[in-house]
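Note to self: keep these together.
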Amino acid sequence: MHKIEIDDEIFALLQQLAVPFVDTPNSVLRRELLTAQKDLPPDKSEPTDAAATQFTPVLHNRTGELMPYITSGKIRPDDILIYTKRNGESYRGTVTNDGWIRANGNTYVSPSGALKACLGHDVNGWKTWTHQRTNRLLDTFRK
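Structure:
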């Protein structure tokens, strides 16, 4: 196993692309790099590696976790998500047209990832973000 050093900006990107509690930085890089490599035309000068051609990424699509709820009409692009702490401090996220959440200056694939970026620690975004238009927790859309 080889070790590499990455800067904070790249690590933050890996966190945005990661599935919380599932992915490691290595699994995100593996998925992203091997998926990108499959999109390139084959290089006839190099022998093909059977293991690389048989790899299927777990998450191939690039839509965010809120996309099924946009498709069903429960959530709309540009809807606002709000989280207010007990001390009154609040955070805001905006649903993008591809199901991601724009918060804290970046976009995140999951509600938990977006809220983690705001708060600085792991939190279940499904159970804490409130959908402003309906005044419902995001978790209620999944039921």
